[in-house]
Amino acid sequence: MSKKDADGRTFLADPAQAGQRIDKFLSENLKNISRSRIQRLIGEEKVLVGGSPVSKHYRLCHGDHIDVTGLENALSQSHIDAEDIELNIIYEDSHLAVISKEAGMVTHPASGNNSHTLVNALLYHFRDLSRLSGDERAGIVHRLDKDTSGLLLVAKNESVHHLLSHMFRDREVKKTYMALVEGKFDEERGKIDLPIGRSRLDRRKMSVSIDSGRRSVTRFEVKEDFRAQVTLLDVYPLTGRTHQIRVHLSYINHPIIADAIYGSRYSAKLAKKIGLNRQFLHAARLEFTHPITGKKMEFSDPLPRDLSIPLSTLRGE
Question: What is the pLDDT of residue 1?
């Protein structure tokens, strides 16, 4: 049983629905909204049971009163338009693609940003894309932050998407980033093994959280150091948490130069001096075994000009 208004719906769970997961229940009753979008509504605490937020794993009880808000925005995101946006396709076959994302492009639509994303471009350039994570994440297996450039894997169907997701989980996809960071290192290589979770002080940020974070592991190697008290690193994230590299490097007092969220005053000052207008983080290499053919795949993406020119400036000092 349900009632509705322009932006919300109210449900009352009957005996037949008792024991059902709430995300499954809502996906069956909100036909025009993907399950992944419903799970995000739950995460945004726009789904309340008895007036309180619940997790996507919550199982209904007979008589539960369920309030859902934010549906108007969710429905507007349920149809994502294909847009003729230039896309740098590094590799493509019938199963997957590898593309190079430019800095400044958001990976997929989210609240308040439903166009000009990588997904909009993918829908224009590729006839087939996985919808395993919903229309708003068509083809997306992993993501890059808006101001991070470099290589991304794209799945063309659900079975390949599923296989690639398991490969990422089992650390069978090797990602190498280039990062310019503040400070010098005593050792040539290192590993950061610290859990990351949502910041309790600022929900827009992530932070190292010993008690409630998820395990996050980042390896790094010194590639080049400079007189300006900065170091160029090769960075290998072994897990894929939001903002992982940026949070880990900032936590050990080596923030990425020009990182507007996790950087320092010195990194901002140096960025201005060398003409760097966004965080120096680039997904430079990608190595994995093709999930269908079994062939070893290796791709590299050179630094874009907005990073290579400031780096040349540093080398000229």
Answer: 47
Taking the C-alpha atoms of residue 282 and residue 302, their distance in angstroms, rounded to an integer, is 9
Residue tagged active-site, from 23, 64, 135, 145: 145
pLDDT > 90? residue 226? yes
Contact (Cβ atoms closer than 8 angstroms) between residue 97 and residue 91: yes
| Model confidence, pTM | 0.78
CB contact burial 96-110 (16+ within 10 A = b; e otherwise): bbbbbbbbebbbbbe
Summarised one tens digit per residue, pLDDT across range 192-209 is 999 999 888 887 899 999
Q: Is 147 part of the annotated catalytic residue set?
A: no
More confident of the two residues 305 and 43: 305
Q: What is the assigned CATH class of domain 81-170?
A: alpha beta
CATH of domain 2-77: 3.10.290.10
Contact 251, 194 (CB under 8 A): yes
pLDDT at 159 over 50: yes
Q: Which CATH class is domain 173-317?
A: alpha beta
Q: Where in the chain are the domains?
A: 2-77, 81-170, 173-317
Give, for 223, the enclosing helix (H) or strand (E).
strand 217-226
Residue among 207, 90, 208 at smallest CA distance from 149: 90
Q: b/e string for 151-165 if b means 16 or more Cβ within 10 A?
A: bbbbbbbeebbebbb
